[in-house]
Every structure is written in C-alpha cells, then in structure tokens.
Inverse folding.
C-alpha cells in the first residue's frame, strides 16, 4: 500500500501532501496530523504524489529529504511547477542539517527533523500555511490586476477611438457652418444690418472656437497611441524656437524672456516642444495685463531628476483651485477675459506622464504662476 487518502470531509480543512518512502512513518504522521485537524494525503512514491497534484490542489507539501531514486528537493521543484503557490517543508534525519539548509536555499520554507515531534512540527506547519495563504492571495490580486488592466486598456482604446471618430464627424458640419456664415458675411453683407452682421460674426467665432476644441481633443486622444521617439534635446533651444514662432502672439508687447542654460536630456522632441508651446503661450496670455511682462524658463536638478519650470508675473490664480488646472476643459478664468479651450494643460500632463514625470503648479492671485514638470534620469 503506497498511499493513504482520507474520505472527503464536508468541513473545509487545510490539506497536507505528505511524501515519505517509509510506509509506517507516513501513516503515523498522517494519523497524527488528521487528529490535529488537517486533511492529509499520504504517499510513499513521489510520482504518485505528483499525479495527485495534477488532480487537485494542496496547501502544503511535507516531503522526506532522502528517498530512493529521488529526493525531497527535486520533488518540491516538480511540485511547484504544477502549483507555484505550494509551500514545501522538508523532513530530514539527525545529522543532515546542511542538506536541510540547502533545501531551504532551493525554495523550501522550513525543515523539521525526524523523529517528528508534534511540539516543534505544529508551529512550522502553521507558519508554512500562513505563507501559503499569502501566496494564494497575492496570486489572486495579481490576476485581478491583470484583468482590470486589460479592461482599462480596452476602455481606453474604445474611448480614444470614440474621441477620434466624434472629432472627425463633428468637423464636417462645423466647416459647413463656418463656410456658410463666412459667405453671408462676404457676399451678402449689403442685405444685413449691423445686428445681423454681429450675430453672424458671433456664429463664426463660435465655429472657430469649436474647431480649436476639436483639434485639441484630437491631439489629446492621439497622445497615448503615438510612440515616443527620444533623442538628445536642449530645452533652451526648444524654448527659443517656440518663442520665435509666437511673434504674432507677443506683437506690440514688452515681454522679458529669461531662459536658463538647460542640460541636454533624452525626450521626444516633438512632444516636448508641444509642452513648451502650451506653457509659454499660457504665460504670454496671462501676462497680457502687465506693462512689463516677465517669463522665466528654467530648471533645477532634484537628484537625478530634471525639474523644469515656466514662471510668469501674470494674473495668477487661487491655489485652492489648483487641482482643476490639469483637467480637460477646466478653466479658472472666463473666455471673455482670456481665450482658450481648457485642454492645453491636460496635453502637457499627458506628455510629461508618458515620459515618466509629473506636473504641478504654484501661484497666487494677481502675483503670477509657475508651472513645473519633472523628467526622470535620462541624460544623453
């Protein structure tokens, strides 16, 4: 008789797989641990124990170290290939301490010495079963995370596809509105009174604003799909190019630009240029009421992290609303005061986060604002 398998019990018990090539020792240990409340499955042949593992799960493997043709370490490794959460305890005779330690290095949680003493065995089993429970819970949580992650990926893909489709579908009727109102203003202005022209101009301005919103939404929806192409980039040169391209926006104004001598950093140059476009255009816009505007584009090193900032002396904002700034369509000033779609800072955050960084802001009402973004260690 090479195995001992109890009848199933309605009460859930923790199951022990006991493997010992000595039948008398195996039966005695099974009987003793059954009495202590465990459900035991005993085998004298390792091959039969592994076959049993393929049929059902066990909480703990209790294996003799030395057995004919194999050993407890090899059995443990084979068993954990079947069930990686299985916890193994090795049984060894006196004088085999070094081998028992080797078993623990190979993956056994603990060992007990023969002849088995209940007083020392039970605490080892309790600890081993507690570890088993942690492993099972960890596996369950990992499975939940994988499932949830896959669900989020699918939801994000669907949302991006929806945003892209809706944005394109909106553009056609919007362009029709814009074309027809412009035709009325150009070709039939003689048939319109001042109020009619004013109303049509409002329609045209609304259509233009909607087109800008759609453009920003498309850019935002594309950011997750667009692969990063990192290359060595000097942010000072990038900032100066952005400022030169904004000559129309700053026409007729006195703006002092202070640009630091940035280190070269590995980033997606096109996306990082968009970050500076959005932050610098914001700074130009919100310093409009200043006779002498000052915009500083600088950095500091926080360990191996590059922290960049764009600081202005503009209208600022109340810090209690700071969490709204980086949300889509969130604005702290009315469109009558300052134009914009409320998407630009969301784009900044998405780009920076794709580079592994973070964004934040500091400011005070009527005392300017400073927008920060960090980039992890990636120097060229």
């Amino acid at each position: 008789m090479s195995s001992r398998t109890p009848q199933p019990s309605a009460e859930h018990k923790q199951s022990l797989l006991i493997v010992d090539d000595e039948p008398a020792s195996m039966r005695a240990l099974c009987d003793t641990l059954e009495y202590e409340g465990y459900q035991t499955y005993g085998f004298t042949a390792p091959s039969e124990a592994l076959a049993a593992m393929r049929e059902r799960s066990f909480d703990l493997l209790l294996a003799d170290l030395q057995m004919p043709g194999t050993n407890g370490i090899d059995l443990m490794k084979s068993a954990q290939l079947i069930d990686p959460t299985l916890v193994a305890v090795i049984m060894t005779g006196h004088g085999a301490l070094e081998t028992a330690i080797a078993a623990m290095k190979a993956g056994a949680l603990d060992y007990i010495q023969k002849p088995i003493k209940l007083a020392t065995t039970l605490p080892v089993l309790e600890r081993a079963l507690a570890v088993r429970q942690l492993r099972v819970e960890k596996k369950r949580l990992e499975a939940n995370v994988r499932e949830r992650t896959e669900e989020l990926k699918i939801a994000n893909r669907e949302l991006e596809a929806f945003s892209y489709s809706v944005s394109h579908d909106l553009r056609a009727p919007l362009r029709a509105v814009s074309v027809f109102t412009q035709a009325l203003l150009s070709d039939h202005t003689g048939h319109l009174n001042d109020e009619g022209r004013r109303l049509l101009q409002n329609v045209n301005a609304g259509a233009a604003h909607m087109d800008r919103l759609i453009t920003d939404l498309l850019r935002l929806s594309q950011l997750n799909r667009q692969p990063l192409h990192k290359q060595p980039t000097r942010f000072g040169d990038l900032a100066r190019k952005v400022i030169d391209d904004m000559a129309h926006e700053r026409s007729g104004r006195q703006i002092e630009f202070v640009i630091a001598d940035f280190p070269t950093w590995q980033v997606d140059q096109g996306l990082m240029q968009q970050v500076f476009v959005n932050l610098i255009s914001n700074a130009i816009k919100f310093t409009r009421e200043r006779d002498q505007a000052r915009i500083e584009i600088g950095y500091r090193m926080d360990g191996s992290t590059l922290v960049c900032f764009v600081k202005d002396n503009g209208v600022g904002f109340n810090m209690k609303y700071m969490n709204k700034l980086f949300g889509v369509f969130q604005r702290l000033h009315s469109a009558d005061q300052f134009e914009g779609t409320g998407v630009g800072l969301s784009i900044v955050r998405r780009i920076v986060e794709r580079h592994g960084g973070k964004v934040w802001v500091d400011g005070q009402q009527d005392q300017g604002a400073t927008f920060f973004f960090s980039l992890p260690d990636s120097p060229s």
Observations:
- The first helix runs from residue 23 to 35.
